[in-house]
């Protein structure tokens, strides 16, 4: 049994708790013990807190120190949380002067960053032990053609994130194919999901981006999308529904958080994985899963 | 009031703007480009990065807030400049001067008062209970508030 300090991330905890519930169940069945840590807060989110990098580092270091006290590596479900926690962890491990300044600020709450742990994304521990995961596949997802969107913040900068090639990511494809589905290629694979455009920019720009990306996925032959980040999930689900309504185009490309696909391959029903919480559903995908049985 | 807090002393990265040759690669290679190019005002000749680097007062340019720190611009730049560092420095300067969007300052207030980036709504509470998940608590936010006081994050902002 592998044990981790579980860091679901506040987007999943607050907005998508069905993904938290499913992740706890599925990772548990794969032999991953998730330890809840009292006191974890927002990672904090890098785009917002980039206005004050020192505050960003100190708040992240506080979360890291909580896991250090338990002697556990952190396991997160979110690309953004991974970006913040891994970046700060690496910066502080490698820069004594910076670590001193951060620890000076942390001293007001009697905490200290020591640099003892690693920060992991669930996709990393799955790909590292692919055979163990494949052994749990009872219902290969044959017939599903999936466009994989890895997301920006787990890929870049590669010298820090070290997950996959930011120009040509393939690990999520490998994870999808391990479930028996087909990972399709498409030309805008590394284009951002557009989350910040829908937050700080114009809705029209966000929808134009989504239209380009979804059309590219459709041209590649996809019938569904796979992601490993909750914000990308939201953008391809809620954002797609909104774009389809306003642009008058039905893309009908349901998005699945990877652990939902894994659960389906392990024999869970669409209802059990939380499909009822999805805004974009597709008869094509539902029928394919019925055929699989 | 400009903050003189020692933890926040950081100059704008002028060097990036000077080194950039405005070649447009960071925003023009369609398979690996900046997502902000989808805003209507930008195209291959007037790119988002060019827009950020060429504004006389970068901190007052509201376009800087569209950057999501995806690092693609610095990855594809043939001259190894980092528009991201420039934009982040401009954001920091804007925040000091009270020019950040109210949405952003609201999010910071949300994080330091609850510990979460997003508000915990009745729907959150209900759905977590339905799923058998523990209720979310906000006690840890007190430590974030103390950190923010120490670093000066939540000091009043405004033009110097």
Architecture overview:
The complex is a heterodimer of chains A (293) and B (160). By secondary structure, chain A is α/β, with parallel strands linked by helices. Chain A has helices at residues 10-15, 17-29, 46-49, 53-70, 79-94, 96-106, 122-128, 130-134, 158-161, 171-177, 195-200, 203-219, 230-247, 258-265, 283-292; strands at 2-7, 32-36, 74-76, 119-121, 145-149, 182-184, 224-227, 255-257. Chain B folds into two domains: 6-96, no CATH class; 102-151, no CATH class. Chain B has eight helices and no strands. The longest helix of chain B is centred in the middle third of the chain and has 14 residues, at 83-96. The chains are: A alpha/beta (293), B mainly alpha (160). Chains A and B meet through helix 1, helix 2, helix 3, helix 4 and helix 6 of A and helix 4, helix 5, helix 6, helix 7 and helix 8 of B.
Number of helices of chain B: 8
Helix content of chain A: 40-55%
Helix percent of chain B reads 40-55%
> In the residues of chain A, how many domains can be counted?
2
Q: Which structural class matches the secondary elements of chain A?
A: alpha/beta
Portion of residues in beta strands of chain A equals 5-15%
Report on the biggest sheet of chain A. 4 strands, parallel
Q: Topology, pairings included?
A:
The complex is a heterodimer of chains A (293) and B (160).
Chain A (H helix, E strand, L loop, with lengths): L1 E6 L2 H6 L1 H13 L2 E5 L9 H4 L3 H18 L3 E3 L2 H16 L1 H11 L12 E3 H7 L1 H5 L10 E5 L8 H4 L9 H7 L4 E3 L10 H6 L2 H17 L4 E4 L2 H18 L7 E3 H8 L17 H10 L1
Parallel strand pairs in A: 1-2, 1-3, 3-4, 5-6, 5-7, 7-8
Helix pairs in contact in A: 2-14, 4-5, 4-6, 5-6, 12-13
Chain B lengths: L13 H6 L5 H4 L19 H7 L17 H5 L6 H14 L5 H13 L7 H9 L10 H11 L9
């Amino acid at each position: 049994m592998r044990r981790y300090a579980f860091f679901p991330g506040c987007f999943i905890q607050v907005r998508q708790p069905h993904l938290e519930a499913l992740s706890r169940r599925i990772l548990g069945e794969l032999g991953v013990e998730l330890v809840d840590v009292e006191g974890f807060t927002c990672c904090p989110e890098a785009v917002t807190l980039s206005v004050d990098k020192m505050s960003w580092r100190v708040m992240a270091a506080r979360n890291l120190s909580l896991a250090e006290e338990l002697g556990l590596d952190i396991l997160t479900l979110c690309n953004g949380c991974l970006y913040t926690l891994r970046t700060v962890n690496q910066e502080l491990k490698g820069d004594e002067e910076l670590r001193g300044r951060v620890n000076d600020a942390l001293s007001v709450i009697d905490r200290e960053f020591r640099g003892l742990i690693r920060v992991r994304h669930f996709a990393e521990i799955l790909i590292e032990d692919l055979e163990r995961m494949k052994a749990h596949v009872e219902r290969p997802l044959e017939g599903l053609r999936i466009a994989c969107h890895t997301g920006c913040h787990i890929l870049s900068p590669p010298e820090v994130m070290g997950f996959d090639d930011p120009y040509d990511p393939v690990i999520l494809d490998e994870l999808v194919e391990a479930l028996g589905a087909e990972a399709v290629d498409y030309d805008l694979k590394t284009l951002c999901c557009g989350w910040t455009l829908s937050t700080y920019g114009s809705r029209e720009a966000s929808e134009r981006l989504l239209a380009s990306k979804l059309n590219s996925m459709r041209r590649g032959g996809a019938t569904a999308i796979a992601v490993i980040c909750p914000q990308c999930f939201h953008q391809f689900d809620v954002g797609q529904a909104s774009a389809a309504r306003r642009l008058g185009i039905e893309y009908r490309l349901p998005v699945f958080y990877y652990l939902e696909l894994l659960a389906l391959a392990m024999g869970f029903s669409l209802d059990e994985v939380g499909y009822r919480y999805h805004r974009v559903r597709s008869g094509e995908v539902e029928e394919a899963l019925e055929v699989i049985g | 009031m400009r903050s003189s807090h020692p933890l926040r002393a950081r100059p704008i990265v002028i060097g990036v703007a000077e080194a950039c040759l405005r070649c447009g690669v960071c925003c023009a290679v369609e398979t690996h480009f900046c997502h902000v190019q989808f805003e209507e005002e930008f195209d291959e000749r007037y790119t988002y990065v060019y827009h950020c680097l060429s504004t006389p007062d970068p901190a007052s340019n509201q376009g800087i807030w569209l950057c999501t720190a995806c690092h693609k611009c610095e990855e594809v730049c043939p001259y190894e400049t980092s528009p991201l560092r420039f934009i982040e420095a401009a954001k920091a300067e804007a925040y000091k001067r009270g020019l950040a969007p109210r949405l952003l300052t609201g999010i910071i207030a949300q994080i330091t008062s609850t510990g979460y980036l997003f508000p915990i709504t009745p729907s959150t509470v209900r759905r977590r209970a339905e799923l058998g998940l523990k209720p979310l608590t906000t006690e840890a936010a007190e430590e974030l508030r103390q950190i923010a006081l120490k670093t000066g994050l939540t000091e009043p902002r405004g033009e110097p």
